[in-house]
Amino acid sequence: xxxxxxxxxxxxxxKFLTISLVITFIFLLFSKFLGLIGIVISIWVFYxxxxxxxxxxxxxxxxxxxxxxxxxxxxxxxNGPVEFSLENEKFTKxxxxxxxxxxxxxxxxxxCKVDEVFYKPGQYLNASFDDxxxxxxxxxxxxxxxxxxxxxxxxxxxxxxxxxxSYCNSNDEYKQGQSFGIIRFGSRVDMFFSDQFRIxxxxxxxxxxxxxxxxxxxxxxxxx
Length: 224
Known about the structure:
Elements: H1 2-5, H2 14-30, H3 32-48, E1 62-64, E2 69-79, E3 90-98, E4 105-107, E5 112-120, H4 132-135, E6 138-145, E7 150-157, E8 164-166, E9 173-174, E10 179-183, E11 187-193, E12 197-199, E13 206-207, E14 213-217
Antiparallel strand pairs: 1-14, 2-3, 2-13, 3-11, 4-10, 5-6, 5-9, 6-7, 7-11, 8-10, 12-14
Helix pairs in contact: 2-3
């Protein structure tokens, strides 16, 4: 219960929380009402940058959600990202939209090795729009699972977001559910994977990063 009320703070949130608390203190010197507003904002900043512990299934027959939020798009047979010269290969794409109240820590869906990271500047359309995947600022991460699955994750900035943070590099190895970055203040994560996986979620479904099953291998007998 204590971990739910006071989860761990992500390192990216430390300076924002400090700034918010300083402003709140200044507000309190002038007005209790302004101070109350500052307190509410500080609480929101703390919870926005929360980094709660997650409990992945630890089974590489499944892909886990790479973010908290809502499934805003599911497409099959889409071209892979041109940034990795995969435009002639077909993937299933699942997009997760994070609003400003979701936890914004991003996580790997499977045990993997990072092959390449590609950052691309762009616009700041509403992250729930389909065009956001192509036009917005984004950071793409190509990974290979321990079972040789090629998977691409795309951190996409949103209408409010102006800063994508990724702390993984080529040749880094990660465990399923381990975090690799965060996006500040509203955004989405796109997951591209092969048709060897069966989709286990539906559009509009709420998912939990590092825990919700997004897809399972078709060789398994799994009911969606």
